[in-house]
Write a structure and sequence with these properties.
Shape: elongated
Helix content: 25-40%
Strand content: 15-25%
Number of strands: 9
Length: 207
């Protein structure tokens, strides 16, 4: 089942209505969301936070019961619960353009995510490195001037790499955003662009 990324006035309600039709055991098995012993809720670790999600049979509006997340993040999680599938990462990372149907969004992703990330942090890499460690990301020493792996969900890793550049040698600052290869089974290219936005928003909010 492929579910369009609905951008109408009330997209969260749209996805909630679809979620009501699902079986909670199937959702837990497919996504690796933790099912409580009494079957009353699901829990997903989202950027190191335990996000509690009511079962499809619940009347809770929006289904995310704690913590209170921005609607963009709620919608992303709901889309994962609806059609995502967990698979084990193999250790490889993919650029955005390598994902299915990403070509149409690549220019937008480079501007909206990669350039925004580079512009925000390339001239303050030391501060960015401290920030990423505070956010629970793991340093990766062999890439760029600084690089971090940040788990969005368990097993789903986003790698940020940044280069400061050198004005004297006319080398411009640069950045890269890569995704662990299991994102292919769980998120669409359009979702990845949203993920780029979400991660950078979280970085900037933590400054």
């Amino acid at each position: 089942m492929t579910i369009p990324n609905n951008k109408e006035l009330r997209p969260l309600e749209h996805y909630t209505a679809l979620y009501r039709k699902l079986d909670i055991t199937e959702v837990s098995s497919r996504t690796r969301a933790e099912l409580s012993a009494d079957g009353s809720k699901l829990t997903l670790r989202f950027f190191c936070q335990a996000v509690q999600i009511a079962p499809p049979s619940s009347t809770v509006s929006g289904f995310i019961t704690a913590p209170d997340l921005p609607n963009t993040e709620k919608i992303l999680l709901m889309r994962y619960l609806l059609e995502g599938r967990y698979s084990e990462p193999t250790g490889g990372f993919l650029a955005f353009r390598e994902f299915p149907k990403a070509a149409v969004y690549n220019t937008t992703f480079q501007g909206r995510c990669v350039k925004r990330f580079t512009h925000a942090f390339a001239n303050k890499i030391s501060k960015w490195s401290e920030l990423m460690q505070e956010l629970g990301a793991t340093p990766v020493s062999k890439f760029g001037d600084a690089a971090f792996d940040w788990a969005m969900l368990p097993g789903f890793i986003i790698r940020f790499v940044i280069w400061e550049g050198d004005a004297e040698d006319a080398i411009a600052p640069a950045g890269r955003i890569l995704f662990s290869d299991n994102f292919v089974t769980a998120f669409s290219a359009e979702d990845l662009a949203v993920i780029g936005d979400i991660t950078i928003n979280r970085m900037k909010a933590a400054v």
